[in-house]
Design goal:
CATH topology: Fumarate Reductase Cytochrome B subunit
Distance between the termini: 21 Å
Strand content: under 5%
Strand order of the largest sheet: 1-2
Helix content: 55-70%
Order of helices and strands: HHHEEHH
CATH class: Mainly Alpha
């Protein structure tokens, strides 16, 4: 399997980005939902929030790298058997996935930067991740409503991503088991691709 994409399938790099980011996002969404159920008095809350922030920033970096790699590589074409409306829906859903993969961690970063608590953003305990300066430089009273607004946006975007992921996975399974084309296979390393007739 090639590192780069070709007309039949995604290359190793694109596939690795896809599956690693997918796994991290699923864990991150679960962690966010789990944290939302914990009482504020829970002794693990602070450590989990710090972990959630670090994972979110990792998703942001990986997504930027994935987008750069996508611009540098052609994307395998969708099957000719798909009509124009289905192709447009597929492209739109992928675009929205990229938007959410950027917007969710960016809104979390903004929420943390504008937090009235003013705590540093520790990246996996290794170093302090910089805050968004124009938010962090505001007074505590100015930051409080902005941080809360970004928190609400962050939550709405996360639930939007859950809905879009359900659609994305359902579409992939539909292609695999109903249409029986290469749409899912071309993203799985080592799986044989059926040559189009």
């Amino acid at each position: 399997m090639s590192l780069r994409n070709n007309d039949l399938r995604y290359g190793t790099v694109a596939a690795a980005f896809h599956w690693v980011i997918a796994a991290v996002i699923i864990f991150q969404l679960w962690l966010g939902l789990y944290m939302g159920e914990l009482p504020r008095s829970d002794p693990n809350q602070f450590a989990l929030v710090q972990l959630h922030k670090s994972i979110g920033l990792t998703i942001l970096v990986l997504t930027v790298l994935r987008i750069l790699w996508r611009f540098a590589n052609r994307v395998p074409p969708l099957p000719a058997t798909m009509g124009p409306i289905l192709k447009a829906l597929a492209r739109t859903s992928h675009f929205l996935l990229y938007v959410l993969m950027l917007a969710i961690p960016l809104s979390g970063w903004a929420m943390t930067s504008a937090s009235a608590l003013g705590l540093p953003i520790r990246y996996f305990g290794l170093f302090d991740w910089p805050k968004i300066w124009f938010l962090a430089d505001m007074t505590r009273e100015e930051r409080r409503p902005i941080g809360q607004a970004f928190g609400e946006v962050h939550e709405i975007l996360a639930f939007s991503l859950i809905a879009l992921l359900i659609i994305h996975v359902s579409a992939a399974l539909l292609h695999q088991f109903v249409y029986r084309d290469n749409v899912l296979r071309r993203m799985i390393p080592g799986v044989r691709i059926k040559e189009p007739v």
